[in-house]
UniProtKB/TrEMBL annotation:
Species of origin: Listeria seeligeri FSL N1-067
UniProt name for this protein: DegV family protein
Keywords: Lipid-binding
Protein's UniProt keywords contain S-adenosyl-L-methionine: no
PROSITE patterns named among the record's database cross-references: DEGV (PS51482)
InterPro entries hit by this protein: DegV, DegV_C, DegV_domain_contain
Molecular function terms from GO: lipid binding
One Pfam family matching this protein: DegV
UniProt cross-references to NCBIfam families, sorted A to Z: DegV (TIGR00762)
Gene3D superfamilies on file: 3.30.1180.10, 3.40.50.10170
């Protein structure tokens, strides 16, 4: 283990506990606010509890980023543990100020080289970058090589989401009311993706089945171009639906390793229950 490089990410990477513990990845939580009460994601409430609370909430949930002070505290702790470099990897700067707060906090720590890295995505796409950085740090790779590898993976990453209900996007300011109403009436299933760090509409599809098929077609192209070797099916509080799709994809693309992940509270506030996503990258 290279004692000099620590890896930090935020809670929206949705990394399993055993992975975080084994690779010593430090996680700073974002928060969700439900009916005026703030909960730190993954610490104060579980994903299942979040979706339960949202169902009976009187107001639409919102999310908030960690304050710079939280990063300063963690970075100071890591410095006291003997680390001289921190690579801190965060959800897209286009949808949250988390990356900026981490960068700002890092600038203020004397004697610690803090490199803030914008994943430009979120969820397990961001998680894959944190895992790669931590594995390379454990293998005593240099900072330059780690960043080079992260850039390479990021170039080959893609992520597409299908939301079950347009209301969350509309209430979260992602879609205007008229569009949401028309979408619900026509049963439009929007496919979303990240473009230039923002979540944008990729295509409107009429049914969930067609939306999933469209995402599969995009994956097929990536597989043919050799840029998909590991993929995550991501579900919004519907593990059965996620697992069904994962098995289907596994049978269709035997050369790709598929795992199951989830949309936790913060991303769930925007995408809503029942959302499905697929993200992939090179090994």
């Amino acid at each position: 283990m290279n004692g000099n490089i620590a890896v930090v990410t935020d809670s929206t990477a949705y990394l399993p506990d055993d992975v975080k513990n084994h690779l010593r990845i430090n996680v700073v939580p974002l928060s969700v606010i439900i009916d005026g009460k703030s909960y730190r994601e993954g610490e104060d409430l579980s994903t299942a509890e979040f979706y339960e609370k949202v169902r009976i909430a009187e107001t639409f949930p919102t999310s908030s980023q960690p304050a710079p002070g939280e990063f300063i505290q963690l970075f100071e702790t890591l410095k006291s543990q003997g680390y001289d470099t921190v690579i801190t990897i965060h959800l897209s700067s286009g949808i949250s100020g988390t990356f900026q707060n981490a960068a700002t906090a890092g600038d203020g720590i004397e004697g610690l080289n803090v490199i803030a890295y914008d994943s430009e995505l979120s969820c397990m796409a961001q998680g894959m970058l944190a895992v790669k950085a931590a594995k390379m740090a454990m293998e005593n790779e240099s900072v330059e090589d780690i960043i080079k590898e992260l850039d390479k993976i990021k170039q080959a990453q893609d992520a597409y989401f299908m939301v079950d209900d347009l209301n969350n996007l509309q209430r979260g300011g992602r879609l205007n009311g008229a569009q949401a109403l028309v979408g619900s009436l026509l049963q439009i299933k929007p496919i979303l993706h990240f473009d230039d760090k923002q979540i944008v509409l990729f295509e409107k599809v009429r049914t969930q089945k067609k939306a999933l098929k469209r995402i599969e077609d995009i994956l097929e192209t990536a597989v043919q171009n050799k840029s998909a070797e590991k993929a995550f099916v991501i579900h919004g509080n519907d593990p059965e639906k996620g697992e069904t799709w994962r098995k289907h994809l596994e049978a269709k693309f035997p050369e790709v390793v598929f795992e199951l992940s989830y949309f936790g509270p913060v991303i769930g506030t925007h995408l809503g229950e029942g959302a499905l996503g697929l993200t992939w990258s090179i090994k």
